């Protein structure tokens, strides 16, 4: 029975989708050790930001196939550990964009008009009309750090409020910024010029503590900072000092370096110029339904053997591309599996050469599929599209990608894998024929045309009379039935290759006898 664990609050719509294909357990707020102890037989885990999916949690789940993050940021998931284990990580890149953007705008408006403080004061019986004099956003400058989905929506609404918008985002083009009517500037300039600064960046090694003393000191004393992106991006000690010393006018935070916010946080000792909310950016009914449905559908699909649409740890492989390349991905896996067995020994290098029309396709998926095939002899089911690249890297296998558009051997192009191992070098080429029929079209540059089959025998031999007969007789003596046989040669009486499809595996002892036939230089068995 397929089992899914939901360890953070997830909208019922998502639970209902999961329940179509699995038994669903909802266990909210488990401490890490209890979560580790609970993972043994779960096939999928669904979380938000509350669960820390550590390597220990992942390693305690031998059945785990997918981790679904019902939201954007996956910094609470050890993605490297998941990838190493071949566990897919998916998220919902757009499900809570509007919610988070509107929360940032709400925080900016509340901050500039002192709404929480004025509310508390009025509820306490006071009538402080002078104390809570605010500022208008109209004609003020907003600095957006991170002009992605949320940042861009915040910019659009701010412009509707009459604000001028600057942005800093090293990965956004000037064309994109111009289209958004936003001026791209350096980070320091943004902090100097903006009246309001809003952060919409992920927490990465590069963004950790990005906003500290240095940038805070560049802010105008009338400027305000909003962070509804990720804690840890802002140095909270430095911010508390700036607020306490009134070197900036205020700050509104929804996220913190560690959550829940510690009782002893310096932010808790501030009053009039700070607003704190408990990571509410995505907490709207609409967003929670969106992300729950989005991620539950992906978990369901993956458990049914279908591709996921928002995989975090399979770069460049969208479902559409997977469908378009399906036959060539299968060819790559077969060639990888075959060439690793031909090469034998310790694989040192794999060259993946995309030829003809195939060279126009993105290389990543075909390289990943080739590596999956190459390593499947050693790793079996443990290798997949998620971890093939990481496993190859961890084994020190050098991977070369070559695109050869000039080659015009087959319609649809062809794929050539060259594997260098401690035992030598072998090259296999293949193509996809009509009806998605896979064919191996050359072995070590000798032309053949055979479909990959479960049990194959490859020989390298001298092209001379009688050798085929002797091989056939030997196999017959050992009751090995030949399903097909092809010989490939470049010149008469030179070297040649033979590829046989046989009904049964060829034992090692028989392989030794085959290799001892006069004229046969090499013989390799390949089992798919
Ligand atoms: N408070 C909350 O509940 C929520 C918080 N978030 C946070 O907001 C972040 C942004 O979300 P989206 O806009 O959907 O992501 P996104 O990926 O669409 O945009 C992030 C942008 O940040 C930019 N960026 C990355 N590193 C940068 C750097 N060093 N300096 C400047 N820009 C940089 C990227 O180029 C990208 O354009 C998420 O990573 C998540 O951490 C998202 C949703 C809800
Ligand atoms: O989507 C994100 O990145 C968020 O931070 C939302 O967090 P949550 O799912 O509300 O715990």
From TrEMBL:
EC number: 1.1.1.95
Record-annotated ACT domain positions: 456-528
Keyword line: Amino-acid biosynthesis, NAD, Oxidoreductase, Serine biosynthesis
GO MF entries: NAD binding; phosphoglycerate dehydrogenase activity
Keyword NAD appears in the UniProt entry: yes
Source domain of life: Bacteria
Pathway noted in the entry: Amino-acid biosynthesis; L-serine biosynthesis; L-serine from 3-phospho-D-glycerate: step 1/3
GO annotation terms (biological process): L-serine biosynthetic process
Reactions catalysed, as given in the entry: (2R)-3-phosphoglycerate + NAD(+) = 3-phosphooxypyruvate + NADH + H(+); (R)-2-hydroxyglutarate + NAD(+) = 2-oxoglutarate + NADH + H(+)
Cited NCBIfam families: PGDH (TIGR01327)
Function noted in UniProt: Catalyzes the reversible oxidation of 3-phospho-D-glycerate to 3-phosphonooxypyruvate, the first step of the phosphorylated L-serine biosynthesis pathway. Also catalyzes the reversible oxidation of 2-hydroxyglutarate to 2-oxoglutarate.
PANTHER family found in the cross-reference section: D-ISOMER SPECIFIC 2-HYDROXYACID DEHYDROGENASE FAMILY PROTEIN (AFU_ORTHOLOGUE AFUA_6G10090) (PTHR42789:SF1)
Family named by the database record: Belongs to the D-isomer specific 2-hydroxyacid dehydrogenase family.
Protein name stated in the entry: D-3-phosphoglycerate dehydrogenase
Organism: Candidatus Synechococcus spongiarum
């Amino acid at each position: 029975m397929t089992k899914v664990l939901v360890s953070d609050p997830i909208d019922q719509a998502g639970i209902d989708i999961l329940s179509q294909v699995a038994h669903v357990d909802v266990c909210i707020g488990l401490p890490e050790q209890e979560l580790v102890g609970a993972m043994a037989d779960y096939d999928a885990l669904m979380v938000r930001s509350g669960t820390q999916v550590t390597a220990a949690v992942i390693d305690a789940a031998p059945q785990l196939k997918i981790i679904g993050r019902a939201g954007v940021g996956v910094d609470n998931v050890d993605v490297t550990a998941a990838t190493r284990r071949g566990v897919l990580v998916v998220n919902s890149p757009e499900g809570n964009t509007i919610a988070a953007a509107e929360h940032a705008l709400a925080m900016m408006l509340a901050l500039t008009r002192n709404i929480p403080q004025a509310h508390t004061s009025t509820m306490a019986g006071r009538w402080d009309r002078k104390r809570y004099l605010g500022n208008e956003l109209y004609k003020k400058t907003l600095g957006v750090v991170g002009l992605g989905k949320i940042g861009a929506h915040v910019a659009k609404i701010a412009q509707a409020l009459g604000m001028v918008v600057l942005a800093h985002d090293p990965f956004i083009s000037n064309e994109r910024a111009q289209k958004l009517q936003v001026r791209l500037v350096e980070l320091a300039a943004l902090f100097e010029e903006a009246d309001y600064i809003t952060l919409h960046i992920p927490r990465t090694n590069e963004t950790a503590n990005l906003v500290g003393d240095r940038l805070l000191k560049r802010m105008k004393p009338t400027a305000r900072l909003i962070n509804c992106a990720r804690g840890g991006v802002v140095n909270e000690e430095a911010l508390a000092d700036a607020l306490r010393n009134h070197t900036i006018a205020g700050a509104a935070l929804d996220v913190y370096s560690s959550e829940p916010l510690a009782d002893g946080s310096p932010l808790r000792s501030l009053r009039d110029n700070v607003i704190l909310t408990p990571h509410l950016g995505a907490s709207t009914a609409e967003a929670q339904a969106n992300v729950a449905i989005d991620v539950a559908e992906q978990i369901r699909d993956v458990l049914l053997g279908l591709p996921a649409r928002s995989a975090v740890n399979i770069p460049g492989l969208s479902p559409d591309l997977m469908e378009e390349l399906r036959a060539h991905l299968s060819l790559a896996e077969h060639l990888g599996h075959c060439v690793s067995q031909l090469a034998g020994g310790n694989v040192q290098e794999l060259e993946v050469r995309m030829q003809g029309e195939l060279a126009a396709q993105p290389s990543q998926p075909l390289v990943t599929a080739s590596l999956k095939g190459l390593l499947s002899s050693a790793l079996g089911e443990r290798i997949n599209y998620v971890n093939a690249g990481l496993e190859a890297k961890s084994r020190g296998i050098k991977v070369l990608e070559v695109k050869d558009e000039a080659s015009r051997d087959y319609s649809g192009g062809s794929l050539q894998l060259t594997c260098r191992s401690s035992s030598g070098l072998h090259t296999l080429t293949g193509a996809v024929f009509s009806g998605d029929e896979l064919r191996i079209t050359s072995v070590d540059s000798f032309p053949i045309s055979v479909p990959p089959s479960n049990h194959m025998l490859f020989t390298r031999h001298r092209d001379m009379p009688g050798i085929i007969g002797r091989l056939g007789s030997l196999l017959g003596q050992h009751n090995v039935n030949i399903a097909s046989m092809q010989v490939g040669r470049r010149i008469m009486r030179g070297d040649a290759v033979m590829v046989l499809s046989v009904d049964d595996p060829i034992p090692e002892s028989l392989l030794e006898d085959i290799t001892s036939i006069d004229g046969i230089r090499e013989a390799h068995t390949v089992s798919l």
